[in-house]
Amino acid sequence: MSRKEQETRAGTETMKAEAKIQNNEEEAEELKAKDQRLASVFGVADLKNGAIGLYNVGQSCCLNSLLQVFFMNIHFTGILRRITVPPCAMQKKRNVPYQMLLLLEKMQCGKQKAVSPIDLACCLSEYRVKLFVQHDAAQLFLNLWNLVKKQMKKPELVEELSNLYTICVQEHLACQKCSLETKRNSNMLTLPVPVLDTNSRALRTLEKCLQYFFHPEELTDHNMCFCEQCGRKTPFLQSMKLVHLPQTLTIHLKRFCFEESAYIHKLSHYLPFPQDLDFNAVLTENQCQADDSEKAAWQYELFAVIAHSGSTSCGHYCAYIRSLTECKWYCFNDSEVCQVSWDDVKCTYGHSNLHWGETAYLLIYMKKHPQ
Asked: With helix as H, strand as E and coil as C, how does 85-123 read?
């Protein structure tokens, strides 16, 4: 082969290599753009397949709804991805955070429209979270969150998880005879707000429910407390002040109530909730125990709604979740996922004449401007 032919051949191979590199770069850019589009749907930065449903594996609609809310929260998944992997197979099988991470990976890597959460469900059954049981979403949220926290080995992750969800309030008890007052701070994972007042009248908005929750209550008659200073039971004034609100705020609408016959009754009356919630506009100065920098961050946007339909003994849960990046709403109903409008979400406000209708039960808000 002549020198000229060698140079021509080398030039051709160089052009082919450059073209191959360019094609690879274009494919990488295309995949990156696709991942960004899909991530905006699901809310998880490294998701590969968009919004994925979860199959119902034995009345697991409540668990499925909660898991979707956890997985759509990029702050939570950022913590979950940094857990310590258990060393042996048996520990992996019984570790709730690890099984949640495996399920998240399965949702990201699979090509189906939905995946089965059976491994996580079996893991939870080891801790008395059973299948084929009608769960209460508020109680299951507390159980699931506490299991995740307890089984995380890294102290810094436990602290991050607590900071992400924990509400701090200050409880006040004041004797009405001698003015002796006691105070103590306590932490909560949800704000369990009533939807009825003490006279069983319906509270008409979420803001009214929050105001009523923080309203002082007189403890009289059989509710009187023992006063150490007076040496006897006296009337007390009980109140609660808000100290700190987390990045992810969970509000529990107490729509299930006990009647005198011990029958659990569902309250389905109309109760609207806003997309934007400013606690500074809802609560008075006397209902807060926080400095200005803390209160400056008390502005929230609605992130998710866990809704219940049916009766207390035969019901169904689904989750409405807003993509944190795309700002569009999606309905996660077990294996079915679809985009919805804000008007669809508002259908969970409730209706007095539709006792079996869909009503919001848990409201999850996200801080607009985290500290």
From this structure: CCCCHHHHHHCHHHHHHHHHHHHHHCCCCEECCHHHHHH
